[in-house]
Amino acid sequence: MREAMLYERLEGNSVRCFLCRHECRITEGQRGLCRVRENRGGILYSIFYGKPVALSVDPIEKKPLFHFQPGTSSLSIATLGCNFQCEFCQNWDISQYGRMPNLSRHDVSGHLAPETVVQQALRNGCASISYTYSEPTIFLEYARDIGLLARQRGIRNVFVTNGYMTPEAIEECTSFLDAANVDLKAFRNETYRKLIKGNLEGVLDSIRLLKEKGIWIEITTLIVPGMNDGLQEISDIARFVASVDKAIPWHISRFYPNYRFSDREMTPMETLEGAHRAGLEAGLNYVYLGSSPGHDSESTYCPGCRAKLIERVGWRIRLNRIGGNGACPDCQRRIDGVFP
Questions:
Q1: The domain spanning residue 281 has which CATH number?
Q2: Do 12 and 64 lie in a common domain?
Q3: Are residues 169 and 211 in the same domain?
Q4: What is the distance between the alpha carbons of residues 18 and 15, in angstroms, rounded to a whole number?
Q5: Higher pLDDT, 290 or 163
Q6: Residue % of the chain over a pLDDT of 70
Q7: Strands, E, within 54-202: which ranges?
Q8: What is the pLDDT of residue 103?
Q9: What is the pLDDT of residue 92?
Q10: Of 8, 13, 97, 165, which has the fewest CB atoms closer than 10 Å, so is most exposed?
């Protein structure tokens, strides 16, 4: 275990955690809502430091990040736990650790030091390390130690996050974080309160602050039938993203029945295409449909002349016409992003 960052000691051996916007008050012997930060004797510990539950090499497009080092590989790493309780979670078997008894089967007996993680990224030719699958905010200590070493070796760092971090946590991230894909799961606080166990405004604040800090961001919305698939709500999301920056890529993702929403249908294609139109109507430069292999909206087009610049099928790039200067070769308009 490792002593946690961003907490204060209170009377009676209680502590208050300032890592995420829940700001849990944790009494001695108890854990926060994330289930992975524990108060022992008035000291808060991150209990899974150095104990990843997932480690794999992915295309960066899988995060999804389409404008950050496209065509490169990223070493993906995760630990158990999450500070949200999304009833539609696609990775519930690791994120909901500590809330369901049958999730105790994961082996976390080993230890993987930050130096070893960076060495694995180098051996696999990865241009970045992605902290993903579960919520990286809750293992910030581990991610930071890996990230600082990675930067020294020329490897960049990515969060795939629900965006519920505090401003203090975001400030810590500026020392190593290069990019983030933020899940904007809905645009109604009632949905966040009932089905996610969080607060919408905290996520919106984090998106604004990440942008302000110069971290490259892309946003993903999973369109769940009967939850956030109304055209008005979808349009509200698109307009919010555009209000922060029209150059932020917005990924519209298809829901597949899972976890406590296993009785719901897969998102209809017409709903996804309607969301795509809403994004363009809001003025966004880059709108993508996920989980729709072969659809034109997987590719990147120049916002100026509409030339096809990056052709994708799923997470695979067939063609990349963006040069080293990051510009469209046809009209010379700069394409927003971080290009290798």
A1: 3.20.20.70
A2: no
A3: yes
A4: 10
A5: 163
A6: 97
A7: 54-59, 73-78, 128-131, 156-161, 179-183
A8: 53
A9: 87
A10: 8
- Phi/psi of residue 209, nearest 5 degrees: -70, -40
| Domain range for 187 | 54-320
Q: What are phi and psi of 293, to 5 degrees?
A: -55, 130
Pairing relationship of beta strands 2-3 and 300-301 according to DSSP bridges: unpaired
The pLDDT of residue 294 is 76
Q: Give rounded-to-5 percent helix, strand, coil for the chain.
A: 30, 25, 45
Tokens of 156: 């960049």
Q: Is residue 325 part of a domain?
A: no
In this structure, the answer to whether residues 255 and 233 fall within a common structural domain is: yes
- Torsion 180-183-189-195 (CA) sign: negative
CB 45 within 8 Å of CB 32: no
Task: Indicate whether 292 belongs to any domain.
Answer: yes
Residues in CB range of 80: below 8 A, 6 or more apart:
35, 36, 48, 53, 94, 95, 97, 98, 106, 108, 134
Burial class (CB in 10 A: 0-12, 13-18, 19+), 324: exposed
Q: What whole-number distance in Å separates Cα of residue 127 and Cα of residue 112?
A: 20
Give the strand pairing for 308-313 and 316-320.
Answer: antiparallel
- At residue 59, the 3 state secondary structure works out as strand
Single pTM value for the model: 0.95
- 3-state class (DSSP) for residue 81: coil
